[in-house]
Amino acid sequence: MLKKEFIGNFYRDGKFYCTGPVKVYDHDFNTFSNGVVIPHGIYDVKLNEGYITLGTSKDTSEFCCDCIKYWWENYGKENYPSSYSILAFADGGGSNSSRHYIFKEDLQKLVNEIGIEIRMAHYPPYTSKYNPIEHRLFCHVTAACKGAVFSNIDVVKSLIDKTSTSTGLKVFSTIKDKVYATARKVSENFKKNMKIVFDDYLGKWNYRVIPEVKT
């Protein structure tokens, strides 16, 4: 899993124990679907906990930042009450692309709201497989969902919530029904007055987003 999936009576690879045969479509045509589920994952390396947000709209930078905000407000600030910075390892592409200013603008809005610095560390191209989230969270969520028919989004949430490992992995999920706009443009004012601090070494992948002081 951990990619966009159609909701509906569609075949999914894998085995799933049930009381009888299940009839499904062998191709996941959009016209036969009841919507989509777009998972976004956060993995806490220290606590060995995963947090999956299931979106129903589009995978955008705003959606990504909303997922971080939800994690921080519901788990992060309680687990780390004395923290002053969040270190986030992320892929270099997709909704959290290291190249897109719109992601940086949404990140700036996010840190202004939550009041804590976020330090981004993007993986260079072709290296995201080394991100701990890939082999400590995503692979186990994928295994938990194998073969299951995603008849509705609640089924997906239930399967993800049951994900666990012998090493103590816990996974929490939530559904976000917000509709996200695509093709948004970064504001010229942000590009001209960007406060993001880029590292001296490999700055295009490593930078700090610091809350702006209100005057």
Describe this structure in words.
By secondary structure, the protein is α/β, with parallel strands linked by helices. It has one domain (5-209). The chain contains five helices and eight strands, in the order βββαβαβααβαββ. It has helices spanning 61-79, 101-114, 132-145, 153-161, 188-192, and strands spanning 5-6, 36-44, 49-55, 85-90, 117-122, 170-176, 197-198, 206-209. The strands form two sheets. It has a four-stranded mixed sheet with strand order 1-2-3-6, with helices on both faces. The chain has a four-stranded mixed sheet with strand order 4-5-8-7. The mean pLDDT is 94.
Task: Quickly describe the structure.
This protein has helices spanning 61-79, 101-114, 132-145, 153-161, 188-192; strands at residues 5-6, 36-44, 49-55, 85-90, 117-122, 170-176, 197-198, 206-209. It contains five helices and eight strands; from the N terminus they run βββαβαβααβαββ.
